[in-house]
Design brief:
Blueprint (H helix, E strand, L loop, with lengths): L15 H16 L16 H9 L11 E6 L2 H22 L2 H8 L9 H4 L2 E8 L1 E3 L5 E3 L3 H18 L3 E2 L8 H7 L5 E10 L15 H4 L5
Antiparallel strand pairs: 1-2, 2-6, 3-4, 5-6
Helix pairs in contact: 2-6
């Protein structure tokens, strides 16, 4: 194998007790993460979102194509336009696209077609998936495992934002094609996820939920 394009791995092997400490600490932090629909309008400190997006960009991707773009929207006019378009789609969903079981499952979360958080949150991050890419010479290039790759990057982004002390919501108004037009993005960039981000409102509440236990999550094969 030609190793001219390789470099030594930057990896530090940790002592077992340090591994346990880090794994437990991250789990404790992750368990505090919740989806939030009540945001403060307070601005996010400069540079925080940039570091979180760089963390998302460190995710693995098929053939290292990095098939993602992250659009940050803070302009009030653009946020209102996104809200209006999203609510239009959501009204269609609640009035006929979603079946009764789906609507019933959403009732306990307190969600409906009204999406005021799209304006209240100081920033919206729209994750776009590259269905294909355009080479510098204008030729169309294939991307691989784009759904999986962008899903992993989105997970990295959500955890980075939580770690930075911010609250988020994974919002998926369906269909989301209106975002490509509103954001002026090329046709190969498909909306994947709309993430309102900011501080939670002082009186913010979230549904009382239980997460599955380790015994329910893990199957041990010997």
């Amino acid at each position: 194998m030609d190793t001219s394009g390789f470099q030594p791995l930057d990896h530090q092997r940790l002592a077992p007790d340090e591994m346990q400490r880090r794994a437990q600490a991250l789990n404790v932090e992750a368990q505090r993460r919740r989806s939030v629909r009540e945001f403060s309008s307070d601005p996010i400190p400069e540079g925080v979102l940039d570091h979180c997006i760089l963390t998302a960009g460190s995710a693995p991707s098929g053939a290292h194509k990095e098939p993602w773009t992250f659009v940050v929207v803070t302009d009030p006019v653009k946020k209102r336009a996104i809200r209006e378009a999203a609510e239009e789609e959501e009204r269609e969903n609640y009035s006929g696209r979603m079946n009764e079981e789906w609507i019933k499952d959403l009732e306990r979360l307190g969600t409906n077609a009204e999406k005021s958080f799209l304006e209240t949150a100081p920033a919206l991050i729209i994750v776009l998936r590259h269905a294909w890419q355009v080479a510098p010479d204008g030729e169309r290039e294939q991307c691989y495992y784009t759904q999986e790759s962008v899903g992993i990057a989105s997970g990295f982004l959500l955890m980075a934002l939580h770690h930075a002390g911010l609250a988020t919501l994974t919002h998926t108004p369906s269909p989301m094609g209106f975002l490509t037009k509103l954001l002026g993005r090329p046709s190969n960039e498909k909306p994947y996820l709309l993430i309102p981000v900011g501080y939670p409102a002082e009186d913010c509440t979230v549904p009382t939920l239980e997460r599955r236990s380790l015994e329910q999550l893990r199957i041990q094969e010997s």
